[in-house]
Amino acid sequence: MSNVGKEILITAAPGGHSGYAYAIGLRLRELGYKPVFLAAEGYDWIVKKLTRIGHVEYAPMPRRVGEPLYRSLHRWPAAFVKAFSKVKPEYRVLVSCGANLSIPPAIVSKLKGMYLVNVESIVRMSGPGKTPRFLHRIADLTLVHWPEQEKFLRGARVVGPIYEPPRFESSDGGYVLVTAGSVGFRELFDVVVEAGFERLVIQTGRVDPDAYKKRAWKVFDYDPDLERWIANASLVITHFPGMTSATAALAYKKPVVLVPAIHLTMSAPVTDCPLYSAKIGAVCINKLSPKAILEATDKARKVDKPSYTEGAMEAARLISRLYEG
What we know:
Largest sheet: 7 strands, parallel
Low-confidence stretches: none
């Protein structure tokens, strides 16, 4: 079957989930497919990035970050109704990149006779995420990044780490980049401004950037070209869990310091941070203080970066085989 002009649907929830979607979508496009992204409503800065390589549709997030499940129950019926209108059999394959945004479209895809591809998070080392664990039961193919993950998702296919390939040439712009995804991490920002870095760039997410504009060189809430800041940083400090660390360490070979974000209760446990850090050649700290940050940055600059086969291309090849099957 010719693959020219064929569309494949990919869910793109906020955070690292949209990073997997972008990386896989990019490689599918290189193979001749057209990625169509199902993104969360209200995250326009993510949409700006996804539209570089494909068409974007919108779906609601039934459960918001940090929200108890019972408070989200009234949103699930509407999410399934929207999924029935957005998930079309002609896509043939739906690629679920995680988070609860993906659950209604994934279930609907199976009801409509489509193939379902289930992608685990790169940061999970001791157990699966809730959505990948649930969808693994009905998926035609589950993709994992590391051999350790195959142990808790039996039958999954290890493709290597899926991360966004570099868009910019890596250089040293002489600044430290601090980023904590779309939610932000106020405690981290408060500590890094006390650490005394000469040139500090902070991406704050939902945290008000005005509180830091007099204490850092550059401050902004969102930037669809965050990769440009990563590419030119001398070092990156970011939160665990999150995909920015993989982009910085594996795509741009930057020294990376990881700080566990204990407020992200719906994601990977803090105990996975040292295991994941070792995989990507980063440093994980277990105490948030200016001294700990400075010691970790010195250590991170000395860590050699590992080399892996890129997982996104292998994932795209496997997805294309399902489509053509």
